[in-house]
Amino acid sequence: MPSLRGKVAIITGGSKGTGLGIAKAYVKEGISVTITGRGKEALDAAQMELEQLVPNARILTVVADNKDHQAANQVVAETVKAFGQLDILINNAQEFRTGKLITEISDDDMESTFESGFFAIWRFMTAAYPYLKETQGTVINMSSGAGVQSIPRHGAYGPNKEAIRGLTRIAAKEWGPDSVTVNSISPYVASAESVRYEKAHPEIIAEIMKGVALGHIGDAELNVGSLCVYLASEGGHYMTGGNFDVDGGSSIRP
Questions:
Q1: What does the alpha-carbon distance between residue 13 and residue 107 come to, in Å, rounded to a whole number?
Q2: Which among 4, 14, 182, 253 could bridge 171 via Cys, Cβ 3.0 to 4.6 Å?
């Protein structure tokens, strides 16, 4: 989309999985991207993959842990310094602590889940807002069907994702007068993490797949990345406060 060329996006957790899929879709549209991750090796590999995909892509990598309270300010500041503006914030990074019953969840499980997810997203949104207000920008937060569907053994992860959806809706109302859109996406797409989880908990995945109407897991770039492209475009800028289920129909409701 010509309207996206020259825009600048931050994608947390952009070195793999859903985040990398979004980054691929964005660089193809001429969007400059900052991708974050906890490991430099993974970030370097992602940058190489993106540059092979789009040789002239403008990419900044920043090693950052979402649980670090200074990470949001650091990433936003480095992005604006490198590219001069900020148009899109994709909050994707999240620790994935699942597989335990509620009575088995530790304080560290709960704290790490919310610190890397809900609280980090709040910090990134707060740090990015002044720049997004200038560009009438876009925020997209990654939620999950784990909360909506009340999936067992997701007692920390699911409520955290539901809190993210609540924050998204309130921000959409508060920031609407500034023409900043805020939406969330609940994806079910393939990633290294989904493969690991499938191997560790095949019985849970088998149960989840029973409810996927299309019968297969989605693709990060094709299914989530393309939606993120649209939501950041002029055409998608009249949609705010919504949650988009990119999950093959597993969240179909009456």
A1: 24
A2: 182
Q: How is residue 225 annotated by DSSP?
A: I
**Residue 131 a catalytic site member:** no
The residue annotated as part of the active site, out of 129, 157, 197, 230, is 157
pLDDT at 10 over 70: yes
- 94 belongs to a structural domain: yes
Q: What is the pLDDT of residues 71-126, one digit of tens each?
A: 999 999 999 999 999 999 999 999 989 889 999 999 999 999 999 999 999 999 99
In a domain? residue 253: no
- The whole-number pLDDT of residue 1 equals 62
Q: Helix 120-135 and helix 71-83: axis angle, to 10°?
A: 30
Domain CATH number, residue 192: 3.40.50.720
Rounded to a whole number of angstroms, the distance between the first and last alpha carbons of the chain is: 35
pLDDT for 200-233, tens place per residue? 878 878 877 888 999 889 999 999 999 999 999 9
Token pair in block for residue 8: 């600048």
* 184 occurs within a structural domain: yes
Show the beta-strand stretches assigned E in 144-230. 181-187
Largest CA distance in the chain: 52
Q: Would you place residue 254 in the very low, low, confident or very high pLDDT band (cuts 50, 70, 90)?
A: low
For residue 134, how many other CB atoms are within 10 A of its CB?
A: 13
For 61, phi and psi rounded to 5 degrees? -110, 140
Distance from C-alpha of 141 to C-alpha of 21, rounded to nearest angstrom: 15
Beta bridge partners of 104: none
Domain that holds residue 23: 2-245
